[in-house]
Amino acid sequence: MNGLMTTDEAAEFLALSARQVRRLVAERRIAFRRLGTRVRFSLDDLNEYIEASRVVPIKASDVWRDLREVS
């Protein structure tokens, strides 16, 4: 897909509803472009959002180490 995507296209790409994408825009949690009254998304911005949402798994040993440091 080249160029900029609509809200519906971005929602499909992210596997979200269009309403959820509009909420992300309203909360300024996702990068977008405003062209007049319309909102558009670049593929790079959507991929950046996906990468920023990545949660790295932790090991049980890390949890126990952190608990020992608290006590």
Write up this protein.
It is built from four helices and three strands; from the N terminus they run βααββαα. With 71 residues, it is of the alpha+beta class. It has helices spanning 7-14, 18-26, 43-52, 60-70; strands at 4-5, 33-35, 38-42. The mean pLDDT is 91. Helix content is 54%, strand content 14%. The chain has a single domain (4-70), classed as Multidrug-efflux Transporter Regulator, Chain: A, Domain 2, CATH 1.10.1660. Helix 1 (7-14) packs across helix 2 (18-26). It has a three-stranded antiparallel beta sheet with strand order 1-3-2.
Topology:
Blueprint: E1 4-5, H1 7-14, H2 18-26, E2 33-35, E3 38-42, H3 43-52, H4 60-70
Antiparallel strand pairs: 1-3, 2-3
Helix pairs in contact: 1-2
Number of E-type strands: 3
Helix content, binned percent = 40-55%
Our count of helices gives 4
Q: Over all CA atoms, what is the radius of gyration? A: 18 Å
- The sequence of SSEs as H and E is EHHEEHH
What fraction strand?
A: 5-15%
Low-confidence stretches: none
Index terms:
71 residues; Multidrug-efflux Transporter Regulator, Chain: A, Domain 2; alpha+beta; 4 helices; 3 strands
Please summarize what this structure is.
With 71 residues, the protein is of the alpha+beta class. The chain is built from 4 helices and 3 strands, in the order βααββαα.
